Amino acid sequence: MFSLTVDDGLRLTLAEERHAEPITELMARNRERLARWQPWAMYRPTVESTRSYIRGGLSRFAEGRELYLMIEHEGVPVGACGMRRDPQTLIADVGYWLDAAAEGKGLVTRSVTALTGAAFTVYGMRRVEIRTMVANHRARAVAERCGYEFEGVLRRAMRWADRNEDVALYGAVERHG
């Protein structure tokens, strides 16, 4: 099992099928709040749909293309942080969400910082991106705290229900010497 220790009490753990129930509970509890920003949150999660997503994530992990990780604080799942990687272009993108009860503790900022570091040092990525809706100020603040640079707005780049939303693009590049 892949895991990344962020610091004392905070760890990112590869989601496995056995985690489907706690992840589904977290998603259901936070669905209304997350549905403003996450297209997947518009749909009611089930343990089976979560298990299916995890299976796909494990397959993409085996192919070297994805990490779908649970954020565990003090041994308790409190959210997710993931990275999709393109081994050809050496570009990755990072996404994240957190349980409302765990907000305000720096958990996402520390998790994204650790995952970004691993993208460069462990996986050899040359660029890592974060994309979020322009109006999602909290997600944008995480990107900025993690050292990502705002690169611009991708107009109508995210399909959302019956409309397309503008997306803020943040990037971090490998630093030499």
Automatic annotation (TrEMBL):
Coiled coil: none annotated. It is an enzyme of class 2 (transferase). It holds the Pfam family Acetyltransf_3. Keywords: Acyltransferase, Transferase. Residues 21-176 form the N-acetyltransferase domain. It comes from the Bacteria. SUPFAM superfamilies: Acyl-CoA N-acyltransferases (Nat). GO terms for molecular function: protein N-terminal-serine acetyltransferase activity; protein-N-terminal-alanine acetyltransferase activity. One of its GO terms (cellular component) is cytoplasm. Its EC number is 2.3.1.-. The keyword Protein biosynthesis does not apply. PANTHER family: RIBOSOMAL-PROTEIN-SERINE ACETYLTRANSFERASE. This is Ribosomal-protein-serine acetyltransferase. It comes from Catenuloplanes atrovinosus.
